[in-house]
Design brief:
The chain is mainly beta and about 130 residues long. It is built from one helix and nine strands; from the N terminus they run E-E-E-E-E-E-E-E-H-E. The protein has one domain: Tick-borne Encephalitis virus Glycoprotein, domain 1, CATH 2.60.98. Helices cover about 5% and strands about 45% of the residues. A hairpin with a 2-residue loop joins strand 7 and strand 8. It starts with 13 loop residues before the first strand and ends with a strand.
Length: about 130
């Protein structure tokens, strides 16, 4: 039997905790356990990305929204939606609250670009800030 080890590209996903918040980056489909918060979090899917592409002049800036699945140590899973803008008609908000913590979408990459199929094919990543609700 022959076993080969391959190095995969370095992932830019991870968690950085400070005194009062946690910043994390998740790829679409990735699941991560937040130790301090005792929350299991999954970037379930991208709901919408209608942001105006780079290099294009738009009438509206657009919005990006992501669906997260959060589950505490002793709770059932709950679906959260975070977005780049508050749009109540669509059920979008910049932040969502779960298990005494606020989840705020701070970035979604890659940013849309006109006529760039390589960028469009890249795996989506979201950057979130998690803070305790006071």
């Amino acid at each position: 039997m022959l076993l080969l080890a391959c190095r995969s590209p370095r992932s830019t996903t991870g968690v950085v905790s400070t005194k009062d918040s946690t910043m994390l980056v998740l790829e679409e489909g990735q699941n991560l356990f937040l130790e301090r918060e005792q929350i299991n979090l999954t970037f379930a899917r991208l709901l919408e990305d209608s942001r105006c592409p780079e290099g294009v002049q738009c009438v509206w800036a657009g919005v990006a929204a992501a669906e997260l699945t959060a589950m505490g140590t002793f709770t059932r899973p709950q679906t959260l939606v975070v977005a780049t803008a508050d749009l109540p008609d669509k059920g979008y908000a910049k932040a969502a609250v779960f298990h005494r913590y606020t989840f705020r979408l701070t970035a979604l990459t890659p940013y849309p670009a006109q006529g760039d199929p390589e960028r469009a094919a890249q795996k989506r990543k979201i950057k979130l800030t998690v803070k305790a609700v006071k």
